[in-house]
Design goal:
This protein has about 140 residues and is an alpha+beta fold. It has 2 helices and 8 strands, in the order αββββαββββ.
């Protein structure tokens, strides 16, 4: 399977993360490097984290965590290996300025701060139309 970036090929993106429908909260990759990934996600009405047309904070956290998983998955894809399953180890900070609504397109920037022995410390910024709506710092752990 050959995929060049940017991509919004749903089957390819889903192959890079362990989550399955209806729990997939990423839909594209526009940039990748060893230290960074930019992901996208369009919020749809039938999303399990949407309540009264509003994407809940728990959905934002899950989107950000899956963006980190997408970074790991794409890295392993480039190496020709199957990506390991990962978990949120700790959420150091999470701040949401606003909660997005259905139809909004989230763009999240994952910046790897440190990676050691399967534990990755990341900073994630989520935007809608270039306006920052959420920030977090979390540790993820691969199995």
């Amino acid at each position: 399977m050959e995929n060049k970036l940017p991509t919004s090929d749903q089957n390819f993106v889903k192959s890079l993360i362990p989550q399955k429908f209806p729990f997939v909260m990423v839909s594209g990759i526009s940039e990748y490097s060893e230290e960074r990934l930019v992901s996208g996600f369009e919020i749809k009405e039938d999303n399990i984290f949407v309540h009264d047309g509003v994407f809940q904070a728990s959905g934002l956290i899950e989107h950000q965590a899956q963006s980190v998983a997408l970074h790991t998955g794409y890295k392993f894809y480039l190496l020709g290996k199957e990506a390991p399953t990962g978990y949120i180890g700790a959420i150091k900070t999470f701040e949401a300025e606003i909660l997005p609504k259905t139809g909004d397109q989230l763009i999240s920037e994952v910046n790897i701060i440190n990676e050691m022995m399967g534990v990755t410390l990341v900073e994630i910024i989520t935007k809608i139309n270039d306006k920052i709506i959420a920030k977090s710092e979390m540790k993820t752990v691969v199995k």
